[in-house]
Fold these 2 entries.
Entry 1:
Amino acid sequence: MTHSPTSGAGLLHRLYPAGYRAAHGEEIVAVFAESVRRADRRTAVREWAVLAAHALRLRTRLSSRDPAGRVLAAAAPFLLAGGAALGVLHLLTDLILPGAHYGFEPSWAADGVQGAPWVLALLCAALGRWTPARALVLVAVVAAQFRPEPAAMSSVHLVQLWALMGVLVLLAPPDAVDLSRRGRNRAVAAAIAVALPMCAVDALWIGYWGEDSLAVQFPPAQQLPLDALAAWPAVVMAVAYALRLADPATGRLRAAGVALAALPWAAMTAAPLYRNTPLDAQELLGNAAVVLALLVVATAVGLLRRNRLAGAARPEASDPLR
Amino acid sequence: MTDRQLTEPTRLVLTALADEPRHGYAILQEVLAITGGRTKMLTGTLYTALDRLLQQGLVQVEGEEVVNGRLRRSFALTDQGRHTLTEETRRLRAGAAEAERRLALGGLRPSGGMA
């Protein structure tokens, strides 16, 4: 079955921003019409959808040629790493460990399962499969909005953190995401670095509190370091940002993307629960100040190192994909 | 040397332009031919790649002509694009050579049980 060459072409044409449409719109629509002339319906729909996405990315300035798009593309693997680290944490503390200590609790289990698509998404990305990774993030974000009895979920406020991370991952232009082996290794390393200490703390404390974890009161000497541990994910992202910035071969937009991946962690709550009580505005501002301070230090360290390395003359070093 | 390998659509577009300048639809046809009919690049994928390659200076607009009342651009590799494709080809060749070497070593081993 063939498809009409002009089907949807008019709408596609209008989707492009005016300047781009005036310069290249007719050329693109002509290539589109030629491509779908003998195509089956499925191919034609794919052609239309991918071209519409191209137009919308240009219109919203989130394409890989736009600075905002390149920053998001650099942030995406680290946002995915963070989301997956939270996913591992909740699989462990809501599904695996409580089952061992208190028996199976369906509402906790449902909570833990929310993290599974994130973990699977990171595995896909680690294998270089960004399209299924994005699909799984979309599943995670959408499923979290339709979860049963949201008030019963112990990590209800973290759904918002996950949603923020997920939306940013989905907005990132896929063609600019670094899926080189080194890039994938960086994302996996970041996920492990974020997850390991948080999981260790939860594993140590899981028998300490009762089933009503809201009632747990830690002595100040314990609560203070636990509160500080809430900043751990942001510390990991700040270190990753400093390392990227320090590399003269890395474009500054690409480094800035890693800094962007640190910002959502301002919404992180304290160990060992990492859940239950949503942050109030004062706590959120305090956390944001900590994250920004970490980024300022990382910027200073990264730039110092970058300038020193650049001074050591590596004229050929450049990242044309910045 | 870049710290990133090229994505497949990018590599295919650069390869399609390696011998001569081409316009959009001709690039799609060339990609189909290069891949032995396995890869039918979508129009949106092509122009996403072209926009980025133009912005990175790996591809340039070689000429513009009016065909059936429509402006049509033809694209060509820049020197930087040619260099990038050369480097990528070298990387791929090295990987393929290593794979062949290991396969050959595996083929020399006696078949049978585990050590």
Entry 2:
Amino acid sequence: MTGRRSPLLLTWLGLGYAFLYLPVLLLIVFSFNGSRLVTVWAGFSTRWYVELLNNERIIEAAGLSVAVAAASATLATILGGLGGLALGRIKGFRIRPVAAALLGFLFAAPLVLPEVITGLSLLLLFVSLDNIIGWPGERGFTTIVIAHTTFSLAYVAVVVQARVRLLDPALEEAAHDLGAPPARAFFNVTLPLLAPALAAGWLLAFTLSLDDLVIASFTAGPGATTLPMVVFASVRLGLSPQVNALATLFVIAAGLCVTLAVVLIARTNRTAKI
Amino acid sequence: MRRFVLGLPLAWLLLFLVAPLVIVLAISLVPAVDGQPPFASPLDPRNWTADSYRVLVGDDLYAAAFFNAARIAATATLICLVIGYPMAYAIARAGEQTRLLLLMLVILPFWTSFLVRVYAWMVLLRPTGLINEALIGLGLISEPLPLIANEFAVHLGIVYSYLPFMVLPLYAALERLDSGLVEAAYDLGARPFRAFLSVTLPLSRPGIIAGSLLVFIPACGEFVIPDLLGGPDSPMIGKVLWTEFFSNRDWPAASAVAIALLAVLVAPMVAFQTLERRGAP
């Protein structure tokens, strides 16, 4: 719906955006502050970025975080993509409505389940499995990847499901009519049509994993530390200008990923209407 | 093929979402022991006990933490609704091109590091933070205001972090709304406020409920915000769970808290899912 715009409403909207953006913008500005005191301005400087890049603990944690994010985003895209495809065509599966509802609930649960519950439950699973079958052993990369995949596959499924609902079934049927076997029709017709949604899902899963503190804290072993865990530990000790610089880099990286994802989603939905 | 498409992600979720919750339930029913792992085997029925739950019910600390979490989450949800509704309304009324941009501007902070955004408020609210320094510099106050380590800061942190969760479903509901219905109310002589109350507001109810649940459910179990912005006066249950696990190393107690929290949240979660299914085309 479009309609009349009242100045009061527009002011409220402007204030809302100011509320959402000002704190982070101030943080970015003060990351270029030359002073050791976080809140006293002492001229423009990039010294905290230089110190950041020389901080081995942070570089190592960043490496682990990026590796975990890339691996879990890839797994989540495969699993969430399949799940989204199935949920989007749930009517074709000829299952009872109760079962369909239960499936929907299962795929949506990770979206709202409090992080402390997800984290604790996965850790207890890993500890129990280790006791019974001797796997996964030392917790670290693998266990964090599994945990992150579990919650981000739900986000991918949502994005892909929305796209599948907009797909014209006639396209795949045409491929069948032209004699393509189901697998061929899927790879030549359906998959390319879903590609932008899958790419957007991957980017969202990557961002979610990069940002997660709570679930990683539960599922990481003593030897593995992700970037948010380093940030959290140093924030608890007190503010430091280095964290401002790190936060700024975080915001820029996440901002780029999300902008790209939103552009991809917007473009798919536009082409879907044609 | 079909079996594989649904079966693979379903198997993953059963193994890494459902099974872990069953294990949490099992471990909440055994006593804590010194050792590795720090709990008695739930496979042996002789170990089963409801002690963790007895402590949960008997100790006022837990009840207070549950109550605090629900109260703070509910208040923050209400504040999100009051701030977010006019925003969603204004976005839904903008032109098509502007609308996409405005929507994008709401989504962006939602994905920009949660931890960083909470941290940004620490920088602003501390006794030597930007707000207090600025107010003292202007001569408005002489002593720093207690802006952090209290419930005010926790509310602020939740509203700030979860506002996009509120705006998006509200926008979706308001965007679908047929403006002809509001016009009809005007033609029938309704004043703008009356038209809003009797047409727009009831028609956007699904968005209000979905947005409120999306804020309320995760906010109830929130750990980072009460830990970094909150004080010792009003612990929230998510932080209690964290402390039981990481500081006290009482895994059965942490599990019992998780099960109790889950029991409280299952009803709103089912409500959310039902609403989503009804809204889907």
